[in-house]
Amino acid sequence: MVAVRPAEVEATLTRIDPLRPILLLFGPDSGLVRERARAYLARAAANSTDPFGITRLDGDEISGDPGRLVDEAGTVALFGGRRVVSLRVGSRNVVPAVEALLAVPPSDAIVVIEAGDLKRGTGLRALCEASPHALAIACYADTDRDLSRLIDTMTAEAGIAIDRDARAELMGLLGSDRLASRGEIGKLLLYAAGEPRITAEHVRAIVGDASSLALDEIVDSAFAGMSAEMSSAFVKATQEGMRADIVLGAVCRGAQSLHQLRLAVEGGASVERAMDGARPALHFRRKPLIEKALRSWSAARLQAALLTLDDALLAARRSAALGPALAERALFQLAAAARRG
Fold first, then answer.
1. Could you tell me if 219 and 323 lie in one domain?
2. GO terms for molecular function, please (predicted)?
3. Do residues 323 and 312 lie in contact, with contact meaning Cβ atoms separated by under 8 Å?
4. Predicted structure pTM score
5. What is the mean pLDDT of each run of 10 residues along the chain (341 residues)?
């Protein structure tokens, strides 16, 4: 088994192992897969004199010609040096091609395979993890520690400090995709260029998806029974062009998430522990309202609310003209139910 443990990933990627010339990068964080692939490919091609650099293959193209991957990896570089091949897996099966490659591993080539989320013990992942000629590295969403390191690295490179509350605000808006996180931090650094420090105001002004933040405000205030705040956020969202069915869809997802947390509470966990175990992690600004909601609702009442919201969502989709009125009525009923809880 040559699956690389999380603690060993960074060290593994800093060196090229000629005994394991095939590297499989996979996982739900496509941005991290891409970032690690770029870095490893650049390292593998660093000493090459080949002006054409890296040979790039598309998985869907080679699925019908499994021998092509072996041929590309076995081709002698025109100007000498190591052959470097990049394979990005698509929607078609590339297992036969990789299987053929592992049967006759290249002696002077590096092959980097990028894939999506792969189930343990099956297909391409099982094949590479079981081979002595391959490395398999899973790429999952960044932890708080990873995000903190990324923020430190990028702010240090830019020569600007970041306030503690700004860091906490920023970390709550990042994490699902490494390249997206890099992009948001880079945008923040550009916005704050020339300032002595990055503040929470800078973060709120420029980072994150404003529509997502607006939806969170609607969802959290409704389930916390805060009608005025919910109404204000809803009016602002609709004035900016957000459809009513999109809002109700977000509220339905919020009800489902709260239901899971409430089940944990009713199973014996404290409200605080249930929130700390939420995945994805809750932004610190949302926690007070979510705590209030968890103390106001039971799992049974949340399930009933979800059925009512589903009906409102269906009605809003059937009649776009009436959608805003239907959504607002459902949200006021939700907030009223929260206060009665």
1. yes
2. DNA binding; DNA-directed DNA polymerase activity
3. no
4. 0.59
5. 73 90 91 92 79 82 89 77 88 92 90 91 92 92 85 94 90 77 90 92 74 80 95 84 84 93 94 87 84 95 94 89 93 95 77
